[in-house]
Design goal:
The chain has 8 helices and 8 strands, in the order ααββββαβαααβαββα. With about 260 residues, it is an alpha/beta fold.
Length: about 260
């Protein structure tokens, strides 16, 4: 469920997978909490509809959404428990979530900027896979790709031609993405968003704030089955997603995300 229709439990499920061998009792406790939360929201789902030409919830996007826009959001929690950082990536097409990822990065990094760059390159790869699928469906169409992050240092390394020698290894790591951003025909662009508005941040750490979860569900187009759709009544609902009204079960699951 966490990789198909329930992005709201991705972080908790990832924690269970990492601790199931080392701390099985803890993993069992968290798993029961997740199941309780799922059982309390059986009639909720992802709602897909036509593209709403807006700038996202709160108007935070730098450009207006359109039917040929792929949004890629990436964020990290730097070495929260030592070692490798935790990464979250969300891919949206025309305002609808198609792909998301929550998990530890493949190797340890030496700084927040390096960890963020690694997340940006992973988001780029995921967005390219979505673009390839969409081109099979829509034909030879040019898609705009918007990459959003909240780390100004990492974005500066990608967008500025030069930098100090201390960041040379980071520029080398991000060469592929930097070439795409510099190519006017690639359709790629990168923009800075505040951490409070970066949807991928919800996949990197536990959350217990009611207001934050409501914002997450709004951004991910999560609605109760039979509730008022976002854009039109002709929508498709995938069962098994988050509740639009968070309750105590959600707070309990979010707390389980902390070791």
């Amino acid at each position: 469920l966490s990789v198909r229709s329930r992005p709201d439990i991705s972080f908790s499920v990832g924690q269970i997978g990492r601790q199931v061998s080392h701390h099985p009792k803890w993993a069992l406790q968290v798993g029961r909490g997740v199941l309780e939360y799922l059982a309390s929201t059986p009639n909720h789902g992802l709602v897909y509809g036509p593209c709403v030409k807006d700038r996202g919830p709160g108007g935070i996007l730098p450009i207006e959404r359109h039917p040929h826009l792929i949004e890629a959001y990436s964020d990290i929690s730097f070495a929260t428990q030592g070692g490798r950082s935790f990464q979250g990536v969300v891919i949206l097409y025309a305002g609808c979530p198609l792909q998301w990822e929550s998990g530890r990065q493949s190797f340890a990094t030496m700084s927040t900027a390096e960890s963020e760059l690694l997340g940006y390159t992973e988001a780029t790869t995921m967005a390219q896979s979505v673009e390839a699928l969409l081109k099979v469906i829509h034909g030879d169409v040019t898609f705009e790709k918007l990459l959003c992050g909240d780390n100004t240092s990492a974005i500066s390394i990608l967008t500025k031609p030069d930098g100090p020698w201390r960041t040379r290894h980071l520029r080398l790591r991000s060469t592929c993405l930097k070439e795409k951003l510099n190519d006017p025909n690639s359709g790629w662009m990168i923009r800075h968003l505040k951490g409070t508005g970066l949807i991928a941040d919800f996949l990197t750490k536990p959350r217990i704030s009611r207001a934050e979860w409501i914002a997450f569900w709004e951004y991910m187009r999560m609605r109760e089955y039979g509730a008022t759709p976002l854009a039109t009544e002709e929508t498709e609902v995938h069962h098994g997603t988050a509740s639009k009204e968070p309750g105590t079960d959600l707070v309990k699951v979010a707390k389980f995300g902390m070791l």
